[in-house]
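Chain A, query sequence.
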Amino acid sequence: MVFLEKKKLKGHTYWYASERGLVDGKIKRTWQEYLGTTETIIECIRKSKELPHIKIKSFQYGKTAALISISDELNFIDIVNKHTNKKQIEGLTIGQYLLLNIIGRCDGTLSENAMQKWFDKSSMSILWKFPHKLTCQNFLKHYKYIDHETSKKIEDDLCKVLIEKGITPKILFLDETNWFNYIKKGEELAQNGNNKQYRNHMKQICMGLAVSEDNIPFMHEVYKGNKHDAKIFPELIDALTDRLTNLKITTEEMILVFDKGNNSEINIKDVMSKMHIVASAKHSHTEELLYVPLEDYKYLYTNSKGHEIYGYRKKYELFGEDFTTVVLYNGASYKKQKKGCEGSKAKIWEKLEDLKRRLGSNRGKERDKSSVEREFNDIIYKDFRSVFGHKVGEIPEGKKKPSLEIWIEKEVEELRYAGFGKTIFFTDMHIWHSEKIAKTYNQKYLVEDDFKLLNDVLLVPVGPINHHKDFNIRAHIFLCIIGMIFYRYLAWKCKFLGLSIRRLVEELGGIRLALVQGKTGGKVDLVVEEMDAKQARLFSLLDLGKFMGK
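Chain A, predicted structure.
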């Protein structure tokens, strides 16, 4: 319970709010807040009566207004309307419908069915007025206007605007990802495949994404869930080349960064016929480089975690071409990988020894060779199957279980240890120094960050994909990518503030709009609630006040 306490000091009276509680069997003061002198309290009461407004309702405003501002700056609505041919009728244009979908999705609305409910509770209901309901059917009707070719034209024009703003890519990072879904019976896109969230029993949708060094998406392609990354890679390169040509960017000067999952002689030659490359190689393709003594490595740089990075550089033939190859060594990664490997190996040995013990006993039910093989394979982790050798013997006379012999493949294990802490990069940019090659490849986290963004429920989530028709799936992912472009361009504009994209969105989300009315009734006004310094700076930088007068 809160008490009001009065204290006198040198003839003056001071008031405090305090709480008391039982501490170690005694009543003690547990909390105290200074309220002021009697005169100060009376003055506060008088001023509160003079306040001109009372709040009726408040809304999240900053994030919504920022996305509208970015849409206006990139001319998104006009670009969409230019490439679609809906008749002029009362209500929203296609561009406005799509923008509503993007803003709603970025505000946590995960289905078209929930859009009207979100709209009614959001600041959009104050900023935009139109005569009809936001039904799921209305959204799906507008999806039909953005087929595959139309979405490409819209992305082309958005990318042109980004280039006009000063974001011209010189390096592009290409990677693939996928999303599982709950589609039981879909069309061609939803297929079973090697799912990155380990949901191989569920159907999935795949996507390739190219991101610039400024972390701005410049191309995306949706494809079937059962297509392997390396198989779809040539199609992604063709789509990327078309996009760059439409943007009047010379592909011969472009550098493409991609991971080893796309490596093949055909893919490497295909990319190099169009642009330069920086890529990584599998250890199995560069075994001799793993055995180079650490004395031959040179210090390159210290990474953000304070770990010293060393490199060994050599011209090396890969996929029928001579590349500048850099082997990077990180001592901290070596220790971590070695510790993890030895821990996993010890667990496997323990389980294998238990299996041998049970096979050596005549107790329990009979076992055949195939059941032992299955149990052995269940015990061995997938990436350890080449390390452990074994032989299941025949069932000895008088026994009811086969024997099991286990050993370590020494050469395979030695190769594994030789590769700990090492990453191998190769490039045709022979004039680059080793540090630049390594750091350029390691920037691939940019596209991986975008995949995280597309999986983040609080930002621009792709999943869950609830659509069954391929057309709607492509439209849905297209809108999520546009939302990501908005966020990334927003972050680029505000980069001097030094905020992560999540922190930036949190600060914007804290900017709220209130409907207020005078104590005696009358006109209802829009007022921005109190902001901190960062929020005020964002409000001014993005000119968010301009929408309040509409």
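The mean pLDDT is 85. The radius of gyration is 31 Å.
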